[in-house]
Design goal:
- This protein is α/β, with parallel strands linked by helices.
- The protein has a single domain, classed as 3-Layer(aba) Sandwich (Rossmann fold).
- 48% of the residues lie in helices and 19% in strands.
- The protein has a five-stranded parallel sheet with strand order 2-1-3-4-5, with helices on both faces.
- Helix 3 links the parallel strand 3 and strand 4.
- Helix 2 packs parallel to helix 3.
- It is globular.
Length: 119
Amino acid sequence: MTKILVIDDAAFIRMRVEKFLLRCGFEVALAEDGPTGIESFKKENPDIIFLDVTMPDMTGIEVLKQIKEINKDAKVVMLTNVDQQETIMETVKLGAKGFIKKPFEEDKLLEKINKLLAI
């Protein structure tokens, strides 16, 4: 079963994504901040990670760097509610497999998952 980790400080985003992914038949792990997300990544070994760009204490970029140090092949998709081209480009250079703008449409999320699973 495909396991997906969602790292986002907004509880309503985590719950919305979890509910949708469970309905689609995926296994889901949640983390509310960067340090917890990194620990969950190590423990859960997810197939795909959805990672918020903007979080307190530890940014999504910092989390992405650490995840990629642990596993350079990790499939990370950034979640963002800001339209910052520079930040998006930086995450792609660091190995992110793209981004999804919040608020997102569920079909876009599923489309991204299917593309990543096909890689």
